[in-house]
Amino acid sequence: MTKKVVVFDYGSGNVHSACRALEQAGAEVELTSDRKKSLEADGLILPGVGAFAAVMEKLHLSGAESIIDQRLSSSRPVLGICVGMQVMFSHGVEHGIDSEGLGQWPGVVEMLDAPVLPHIGWSKVQPDAATKLFQGVEDERFYFVHSYAAKSWDLLIEPPFIPAALTWSEHGEKFLAAVENGPLSATQFHPEKSGPAGLKLLSNWIQTL
What we know:
CATH architecture: 3-Layer(aba) Sandwich
CATH class: Alpha Beta
CATH topology: Rossmann fold
Order of helices and strands: EHEHEHHEHEEEEEEEEEH
Shape: globular
Strand order of the largest sheet: 2-1-3-4-13-12-11
Number of domains: 1
Distance between the termini: 11 Å
Strand content: 25-35%
Oligomer: single chain
Number of strands: 13
Number of helices: 6
């Protein structure tokens, strides 16, 4: 049975490429900000391009925060992409401005300490042994476009609860490239721009829905 995925439309860029990639990966896709459809879909994608604070402002205006909260409280999958990953953390600091995020995970998104920014291009990742997203593409490169990232993981989960699967990459310093934490997953890179490896990752996510 084909899974229904909503790409949440709050005015972020590059959403059409995400829609096309999800369709290629086997999902039935709708681009919408409709609350009912966003809650009822098998999976919800939160894309994100631009500054942390600007994305958060648009998310507040669109009601995305409560939609994401409600989905996650019901164990319904959400996947954040790029800034859509960053806003899952408690705070983002850009140009000296500390903006509050969605707070699904503790931590701060900060500028990378790297000789060249933004980090644009194809980079390898180091997936967690428990990954589901990266099965079959553990050794592939993915496409990044960013200057900011989460550099640490502060959510400590005690047994019998399952810890998050963390995938790391490096540009100047180590940063989180992806997180798989129960129904909430996110990638700092753009799977929809990462060729066959990105399509495989999206297909892996769709298969978990």
